[in-house]
Amino acid sequence: MTAFPRPHRDDVLIAVAGFLGGLALWSLGLYTRGSAGVDPRSLTLLPLAVISGAELLRRTMPNTALAIGCAAMLADQFTHGNVATIAMFTDLVYAAVLYGTPSAARRIPAVSMVATAAVTVTALVVFHDAQAILLGLVFAVITVAPAWTGVSVRTHRDAAEAAQLRAEQTALLAEIDRAQAVTAERARMARELHDMVANHLSAIAIHSTAALSLDDPRTTHDALRVIRENSVDGLAEMRRLIGLLRSGDESADAEPATAPTLDGIDALLAQACANGAPSGLEFTLADTREAALALPAPVELAAYRIVQESLTNALKHASPGEVSVRLDESGRTLTVEVTSPCGDRPGPRAPGSGAGLIGMRERVALLEGRFESGPVTAGDGVKVWRVRAELPIDEGNGRV
What we know:
The protein is built from eleven helices and five strands. It is an alpha+beta fold.
């Protein structure tokens, strides 16, 4: 069984106030139709009570309330009439447009205008008196005016709700954009931090392990020298990053002015040779690019970081042999390929977390390039670990 809707508090106040007002007018003998209407005069209270009850439904069941009000208003025409009944009927018309369905809000004003025209024409035909137009005006005040008032209020209310919804959606989109920007910046900082210090820390870990495991003063001295060099370089890199984070001069969409470029590959390989010599690693570079061609800053930084991280991984995990770095340009694509020997490795190893491969893959994805990493078999049948990245050379590439 469907529960009867509980009337709104304001509707209860309107119903009570309307009924008490009509009752006061009746007790004072104030009627709208004077001596016309059937007796007893107490019958005027019946439409008043019915339409007061309909007021309780003006917000929860507006169409039903209007139908009851129309019946009560029709019955009121056979009594001496009460102003309160008419006033509450106009309120029911207004409420039906404001709180009713969209179709009812469109239909009621049109019906009220048609009914007003019909009443005016009928009065002119029946009474043959121009004063019948006044009856049409009164009917318009009772029906048309409250209907169009409801249309105006409903239009403004719907516009306010739509504006609030748009504001909420805009705020939600702004929050989503902010969260994505924060996540992207955190990922960028993580890549920069890992790429800058991982190489130095890996060398420190390898050489400190060698110094502790080998009882040879010469080896210990060389290991401590390498440890000191990498500690100083790593500290300088950390200070550079901290300085960039503290300064507000760098835009969020641009790389720092001091970002490394491919011109520093030779120095990177020299450092890798010094760090990898105790492990039997040799490093070679094959650069077949056109020297005169300038690369977009994001592409150049990504290529440098991929080589840097690949060399760091080779220092950590590669078996003795040759680590080859190849840079090639074909059309509008820069290819970076680093291969290192796979197999058992004597001596100390540095632990790895896999964050380096993730960072390289993210850098390539941001530039909409292709990235591959894993073991492959070289032309001479030797198994090697290969990192290969194809970076589109496009000035429209986004931030790395």
